[in-house]
Description:
0% strand, mainly alpha, single chain
Amino acid sequence: MSQIMDTLSNLIHQTxxxxxxxxxxxxxxxACVFLYLAIKKxxxxxxxxxxAFGMLLVNIYPDIMATPESTSNGVGGLLHYFYILDEWSxxxxxxxxxxxxxxxxxxxxxxxxxxxxxxxxxxxxxxAYFFAILLGFNGKAAAAISIIGGADGPTxxxxxxxxxxxxxxxxxxxxxxxxxxxxxxxxxxxxxxxxTEKERKIKMEQLRPVSKLExxxxxxxxxxxxxLILPTTAPLVGMLMLGNLFRECGVVxxxxxxxxxALMYIVVILLGTSVGASTSAENFIKLDTLKIVALGxxxxxIGTAGGVLFGKIMCKVTGGKINPLIGxxxxxxxxxxxRVSQKxxxxxxxxNFLLMHAMGPNVAGVIGTAVAAGTFMAIFGV
Length: 382
């Protein structure tokens, strides 16, 4: 009888209830909130569902992220091996290739002025860098945190890994992906505050047709120019342009389909669950995490405002030919930010179609954020 009781006691004490802290329960609640936002509200479910589930798993069973050195048999937890691919910058680079294969760069080629709007929206990144230093972060940590302002999760993970800020990678990645998901909530109030109804109603001229040759040459030329100036951007810009070249050259249909579908979704699963699993209570519930979340929001808001304000300047210079709303798409959350520009414009005038115009700054923002990451890497000699 005593043996049975001992067995039952051992089984009971092996349940998670005896090992979880209040922090773990808090993170489980946060994970459930993320799942609700993803499933019920439709906020970037492809990202939030795996991130939230990884968060759920690690706070119920922390050993799923155990390193080989910390286990008795020398075998690490499942998601630890996924996370190594984040630290090595493999998954973020593959995500960029998939984004390139899925995205039409035509609007940017047709309207090169979009590069200026994409550049203006990077104001949030550089502002957040100095704010982070003021809050006590060292230079490398401040640089890794500031990339959140580009609303670009893969670049945030990439730079944090390259700068050796793996301890902050979880909060940085979760903040970046959260703000990407909340673009439809955060951006519209800022856009409406900084523009007049008359400006929001501006209809832009139809973009010129872009030839096949232009679309083929664009990724090649951008790779050569950008990577010669900033070689550190090659993993991100190079993979982005390679994916786009697959799409536009027309002779590697199988590679395009693989990069934009099967491979892309596999990488999203691995990256999302591993990022979520980096948010164990002991690593996530810290004062620095609150600072990172606040800095990310400030950076994102400033980036949105920078794009819109520069759009207003371009509107004046061109005699009212550019709708300032498309500047907000420069934060690089593809294609969500462009859709928000379209939505806010359509609220002012249902016949106004800004989506394709906004895709120009949106693509420019992706490139701009990668360039910002490369610039920080060059500054710190990485």
